[in-house]
């Protein structure tokens, strides 16, 4: 196929429609390019439950092996299970998944040895360049001695590693509903939760990359309605939803109320700081709640604010020696997990915190959820730069208001803040607002939206 990679090579990964935008021959070239750019003698590959994943994954393996690289295939896995394999085996890795995207999509998340991220500036641009050149001029010369392709099951080792990081031995019994969304949580949860004092109520654990029940994107409120209802019906202590590749988790309390990822970030941060003697750096992106840096400071830690995006968080984790990081999108990063993101480890922390005391989850998280937030509101605009400039003009010089442009535009006052960021892939502006009370938040949100939507 003619390779138009501009449509599928994103900032942090490869993602597109199969076979319209990419296919197995192209995946084979990606495997060869990954082998060349990493310079590795061996790599590890995993894939999710999408119909196209096994074929694409095997094609990538062939491409890498043809360049003399030994390939370990771990088969069906979650993205954080692939990071576990990359970290524990100290090998570069490739995960075939399109996360929460619809069934016809697939993609590749790549990392270097030790689960270090591969993004545009850390190898992905070089990989794209090689694939484009080979797609036009023919595949690269194979190595004199091809590499081997072998299989290895890492699920039990992954589960044991996670359970070793959070002490769940003395928690009270908990009833937990888990919605896997027909994604990889249905594969990992039974093994990770095995032997814990949990009454597990599974929902949509059947692996099905066509997502017959709902999209595997728990950040969209429509996709947790079934979970909320089931938690109430079962009288469960909490509910947990995973996205398609099970690297993000979303939590609902005993009443079915959604718990904000910022509150989970603050809760886990307090536990990680306690584990590290009340010292350590915690990373949070600039649209997490004010609650996060407050809780970090109250627990002896140092909060560090970053741009949105996992490559920024992971880079800051590595450079600052941070112990933990969290994003508004329900990605949670741990120093104990090679600075990579794992929703499963965050879920275990929530279970340990809830099971270690007698109150309900709603009461436990209230201490970490202190402000009124708008959630992310997307607006389609004709000219992103012009709308951002209009917001800047409106608020610049206003008394008691500060502006910063770390990522988009953040406008901050004593009682509220909001951030507006442009989407990299669509003609959208994304608004997040927060205030000390609901009425103030609504006023700030509506004023910002009026400017954005012109």
UniProtKB/TrEMBL annotation:
One annotated GO molecular function: metal ion binding
Keywords: Isomerase, Magnesium, Metal-binding, Phosphoprotein
Example GO BP: carbohydrate metabolic process
InterPro entries recorded: A-D-PHexomutase_a/b/a-I, A-D-PHexomutase_a/b/a-I/II/III, A-D-PHexomutase_a/b/a-II, A-D-PHexomutase_a/b/a-III, A-D-PHexomutase_C, A-D-PHexomutase_C_sf, Alpha-D-phosphohexomutase_SF
Coiled coil: none
A Pfam cross-reference name: PGM_PMM_II
Domain Alpha-D-phosphohexomutase alpha/beta/alpha as annotated: residue spans: 7-133, 156-256, 263-371
Presence of keyword GTP-binding: no
The protein's required cofactors: Mg(2+)
Residue intervals of the Alpha-D-phosphohexomutase C-terminal domain: 376-448
Annotated family: Belongs to the phosphohexose mutase family.
NCBIfam families reported for this sequence: PRK09542.1 (NF007088)
PANTHER family registered for this protein in UniProt: PHOSPHOMANNOMUTASE
Protein name (Swiss-Prot/TrEMBL): Phosphomannomutase/phosphoglucomutase
